[in-house]
Amino acid sequence: MTTNIKKYTGKHIDVSFNRKRCIHAAKCVRGLPKVFNLKNKPWIDTDGDIADKIAEVIEKCPSGALEYIRKDGGEQEIPSKKTTIEENANGTLFIRGDLSINQGEDNIKSNRASLCGCGLSKNKPFCDNSHQK
Ligand code: SF4
Ligand code: FES
């Protein structure tokens, strides 16, 4: 949903973050702490590294909470041709592919998503870490 999405504008790359879809997998903050740093405000510095690196780390975000748009002529994220699903021990389902996900009346296009497999999420079909309870 658009209201949960915050946009961060950079010179070469724009980044968007959907806080409701973040499952705190920390791939971003561990992968590129000079760009993704919770101690900073704003916590994403879109000019903190070259766009290639920022894009590379964002593509590792398993939830799809982070997305980017290149403005420097660099390649935009290409969804994997095959749709793949992996389950972790909590029941979260990690999906990659050219996804079209319905949530209420919204149809969400995404290349990455973590979906709830435990049934407890309040943001279904997405995992919201409620499985931890
Ligand atoms: S990598 Fe994605 S899911 Fe993990 S903390 Fe960062 S934004 Fe959240
Ligand atoms: S699997 Fe995470 S909330 Fe259900």
Give your account of this protein's structure.
By secondary structure, this protein is mainly β. It folds into two domains: 69 residues, Alpha-Beta Plaits, CATH 3.30.70.20; 49 residues, no CATH class. Helix content is 10%, strand content 30%. The strands form two sheets. It has a three-stranded antiparallel sheet, with helices on one face. A hairpin with a 4-residue loop joins β1 and β2. The longest helix has 8 residues. The two termini are 25 Å apart. The model has no long low-confidence stretch (mean pLDDT 96). Bound molecules: iron/sulfur cluster (SF4) and FE2/S2 (inorganic) cluster (FES). Iron/sulfur cluster binds next to α1. The site of iron/sulfur cluster has 11 residues, from α1.
Topology:
Blueprint: E1 5-8, E2 13-18, H1 27-31, H2 51-58, E3 66-70, E4 84-87, E5 93-103, E6 106-115
This protein binds iron/sulfur cluster and FE2/S2 (inorganic) cluster (FES).
FE2/S2 (inorganic) cluster binds at residues 90-92, 116-118, 120-121, 127-131.
Number of domains: 2
Residue runs with pLDDT of under 50 for 5 or more positions: none
How is the biggest beta sheet arranged? Answer: 3 strands, antiparallel
- Shape call: globular
Rg from Cα: 15 Å
Distinct small-molecule ligands in the complex: iron/sulfur cluster, FE2/S2 (inorganic) cluster
The number of distinct β-strands equals: 6
End-to-end span in angstroms?
25 Å
Main features:
single chain; about 130 residues; mainly beta; Alpha-Beta Plaits; 6 strands; globular; binds iron/sulfur cluster; binds FE2/S2 (inorganic) cluster
